[in-house]
Structure formats: structure tokens, C-alpha cells
Amino acid sequence: MPNAIATVSLRGTLEEKLKAAADAGFDSVEIFENDLIGSALRPAQVRGVMSDLGLHCSLYQPFRDFEGMPGDLRTRVMDRAERKFDLMGELGTDRILVCSNCSPVSLGERARIVDDFRELGERAAARGILVGYEALAWGRHVNDHRDVWSIVKEVDNPAIGIILDSFHSLARRVPSESIRDIPGDKIVYVQLADAPLLDMDLLYWSRHFRNLPGQGGLDLTGYVAEILRTGYEGPLSLEIFNDRFRSISSRLVAQDGRRSLESVRDAAKRLLDRPTDMPAPQAPLGAEFVEFTAAGDDMARLGDTFGTLGFSHVGSHRTKKVTRWRQGNVNLVINAEPKGFARSYRIVHGTSICAIGVRVKDAQAVMDRAAALGIRAYSPEGRPGRMAMPALRGVGGSLVYLVEDDGAEALWTREFDAVPAPDLTDDARVCNIDHLAAVVHNDEFLSWQLYWRALFGLEGRDANDVIDPSGLVHSQALQSPGGAFRLTLNASDARETLSSRFLAQGMGGGFQHVAFASDDLFTTAAVTRQRGAAMLEISENYYDDLAARFGFEEEAATRMEQAGMLYDEDGDGNAYRQLYSRAFDKLFFFEFVERCGTYTGYGAPNAGVRLAAQNRFRDVQEVME
Ligand SMILES: O=C(O)c1ccc(O)c(O)c1
Ligand SMILES: [Mg+2]
């Protein structure tokens, strides 16, 4: 089943779009009429460019306002179709999409619609052309693929079939099982698009917010599974109208497009229990370590910071300038090597988080799936086979190491000399990594989501718009099905938000904070304070509001205020407590959280308060400098 993409999905001139599609390995393209009309290339030249790139045109679209036109307009519309058939001959394509009529003058009478398609079918057959009828979700008389299928069935002409577009079907909540009524050989073409679940006018939603399968909230897997079930063997084609995709790198969108198609096809086959070409996604079983790159003074300063947060230096790498810090089940690594990846990352991004290690059951299977999805493996140059752990390139350039669950401890003992841990009496009660938070460019926001969803099968959870004093920050949580691995992605277009400053200062997207899970956050607060940790102070007003919202006694509110703690509850009384450290060199910071009961969120109501506090501290620092 070949992969295709509509030119409308990509930025640039028609030549640039074709090049991006070819480079990403697509078999064919849908030529969107406006892209051709605006191009300086004649249709035959476009055909030549496609053929040089190893592409062909699998669909010409759209042909609008066809069926049910009254009076003379009907003659005009047939004439227009003949001209487009000529053009298709020059382009070298035999398929055209007719979308359901939106014209206010069109007639909805079914017999007329059937007649019109019969005549079009005869004209198309004479030219060796196949016509596919697509229901636009906002079509004037026809807006549901079930109606299109019933018309196509009645037309009963071999040159007339149906085109299915997941957006139109799923946005109107048409059950995907209805596709079972359609024989595969009557499906002329299939277009796929996902979209975030928004309560919005259908046309506006479709023209501005579509995204790639796996980036939105529609059930594309179920949709594609129903299509596979029909026996359809034609292209799966991406038709993505998206404001951002029109302005960002066509290379990125095309590459992600390929990844999304491979991933959704794989998921659909799994749903049908059919054999697939790649290993199943494996959700991380947890984060095994977070690796920081820091050299010189920063290495010592960062180690000191870890110490104040309750960590102990427990290991030193046998051959490298790398130290291991531990608390509970959390490992932090400082890499101060004068060469290699950590150094390169440090040169670009400064002292920062350069890699994470995730625990998986079968690392090789993850590597194989990554390869099938076009995700590059990391191999240090000139040192083949020396990798203690396989690693993958993340979206922002940092690495994701894969640690096999049962081999984690052996790996540490093999690579690190133990450093006798001091006899600690002041346990800060950190048990695990609760979540990692990345800041990413808004242009790469969907790309990061696709990476984690397609490769690791993470699920999208809370999406929030958070108010930073300097603008809006979009936040999306992703997690493994059981919640053992959690990630939040944050992006902002505003210039001065904390997220944007991180991007500017750190030269691009990456991990901005690590949240540690504590089983007793008041003790964590007391111990870190006693160890001299620089923690974030929260406004007094917050605690007045907290007491009012949750009916706290003054004593309880004061206790939280003294600890600098944030608090939230879900509707079922499950609670969440949070503490934040101040940022290390204004770049990255740490959070401690305690989840009580089955609280699954991230304290969204507190995010604005925290950002305001961080913004206040930023002003103080800048004045002092
Ligand atoms: O938004 C539109 O008009 C439009 C045109 C052609 C399509 O295939 C489609 O899905 C939408
Ligand atoms: Mg469409």
C-alpha cells in the first residue's frame, strides 16, 4: 500500500513541495489545484519534475461544485470537467477528486446527483479516468461518506467511486464501521488527517487545524483498520491543511508524514491481528537516568546543587569524567568529558540535560522500530560497537538511551566505581522520576509528540494553555499507558516567556526540568531547606486563595507557605503537592512532587503561579547583574 502526500500539506513552491515529498520517500503526490495554478511550471513540466524525482501524481484535486447544478450551469460544469481531464493527461494522472457541492445554487435532489455522476462517469471512462466522490463535512446537501457511498452505488459506473477522507468522517463522528459496507475496489483514494479535538466550525477546523495521524485526537487507527479490511490497496495519502505546516520546514513535515503513515498503518494492522513490518511500540518502564553535560566549575556547582536536593555522589566512571548521583531510584549523571557527544551538546546548548535513559524490555526491538520509522540511531564516530547502551537521536538533538530493564544495575556496576556513600540521616524521600518536562519550539511541538507516540506508544493526556506573565505557553502531557513514564512538552510563540527564554539561551529545544516523586513532600521540603537548596518562593496571595478554595485551616496553609509548596486536588479528592527549585543559571530547574491517591495531572492550576514566581526571580537576578 503506497504512501502519498497532498501538495497542500507542505510549504514552498510546487517544485519545493515535490522535492520534500520525494526526499522523505513518498511514492506519489496529490496535486492540489491551487499549487498548480500558482506555479510557473506547465503541467507537462510538472510531470517531468515528478518523474526526475521518482514520483508520480496519484490524484488531482479538488474538482468543486459539480453535482446538482441547475440549468446552463450543468453544461458548464461538464465542460469544465473535460478541460481538467485534458490537464490530467498532461500531468499523467488518472484519478480526480470531486468534493461534494457547497454552492448555494446547487440542487440536493438525489436523482439529479445520480444522473450527473452517470454522465461524468461516461465522459471519464472514455478518457480512462477514475472519479472519486468525497463528502466534505460542510457540503451543502451531501456531507457524510455514507451518503456518498449510497449515491456511488446507485450510479453504478466503473469510473465512479468513493474517496474517504478521515477528517470529514471523524469530525462528524460517522462510525468507522460504516466503511465495511464499501467494497475495496470502489474506493478510489484514501486521504488521512488527524486533528485536535476542538469544538469549532467544521470548515474552519478542517482548513487550519488538521495534523498528521498520531498528532491529534481522532481515531485514525480504527479508521485505517476499516479501510484495510475492505481490501483497498491504493495509496494512503496525507491531506493536511495546517497553518503551521504552511510555514515550517517542508522537510520536517514530509519526514514526520512518512513516520505517521508507517505508524498508523502498523497500529491498524495490529488492531486486525495482521502481520506487520516492525516490532510493536514499547512504552518505557521508567526513566533510568538523566544525563547533564557540565564541565569546569559547572561540574562542581551542579554536583553541589544535586547534594542540596538530597542526592549523593555514589559512583565515578572507570575511564571517563562522568559521575553518578543517586537518591531513591533516581540516577543523575554529570558528563564532563572533554570530547564526544556531551561536549558537542555543551558547546551548542551550554550546561544542560543532554540525554535521558529510559528503561525498556527489549532495546533491540525499540531500535528496529525506530529504524522503520526513520528515527536515527546514535553511534559515536569511529567507535563502532563501543556503545554500552544503544541510543537514539531525539527531536531536539539530545539522546535517548535505551536501558534494558533487567540489565540496569549491571550496567552501573560495570561502568562505574562505587564511591562510598556518606551515612545520610536526612533522607529527602525522593523515590523516582515522576516526569520530565521539555521545552520545544512551537514549530517542533507536533514533531516531538509524534516521536514519542509513534516510537514508544505514549498517550496524549492533559493539554493546557498556561499563562506566563509574558505570554501563552502550550503544554501537552504524554505518558505510558500505566503512567510509569511521563513527559510534558511546552512551547510558546511569545518572545519573553520562560519557555522562549530557555529556547533562546539554550539554543533550541530540550529538557528544562526534571520532577522527582517524593513519598513525603513536607520532609523533602525540610531536608532540602536544611541542606541549603535554593527553592522557589511562591506569592502569599496564592496561599490565601488556596485556603479559600480548599477550606484549609490557617495552620495547614501556613505550613505549605513556609515550605513554598503548591497544592492541587482532582474532583475525587486525590491530591498533588509540588515544590520547585530555583533555576540553575536561569536555564533548567527541578521539581519535587507527591501524588496522593490516584491524582494523574500535573497541577495545571498552579502553573501560572509558578511561572509568575520564576519571572519575579528572574527580575531580581537581572537587576543584581
Ligand atoms: O477544504 C476544502 O475545500 C477541501 C478540498 C478538498 C479536500 O479533499 C478536502 O478534504 C477539503
Ligand atoms: Mg479531502
TrEMBL record:
GO terms for biological process: 3,4-dihydroxybenzoate biosynthetic process. Residues 286-405 form the VOC domain. Pathway: Aromatic compound metabolism; 3,4-dihydroxybenzoate biosynthesis. It is an enzyme of class 4 (lyase). It comes from the Bacteria. InterPro entries: 4OHPhenylPyrv_dOase_N, DSD, Glyas_Bleomycin-R_OHBP_Dase, IolE/XylAMocC-like, VOC_core, Xyl_isomerase-like_sf, Xyl_isomerase-like_TIM-brl. A divalent metal cation binds at residues 134, 165, 191, 239. Mg(2+) binds at residues 435, 513, 591. Keywords: Lyase, Metal-binding. Its cofactor is a divalent metal cation. PROSITE patterns: VOC. Its EC number is 4.2.1.118. GO terms for molecular function: 3-dehydroshikimate dehydratase activity; metal ion binding. It catalyses: 3-dehydroshikimate = 3,4-dihydroxybenzoate + H2O. The keyword Metal-binding applies. Catalyzes the conversion of 3-dehydroshikimate to protocatechuate (3,4-dihydroxybenzoate), a common intermediate of quinate and shikimate degradation pathways. Belongs to the bacterial two-domain DSD family. This is 3-dehydroshikimate dehydratase.
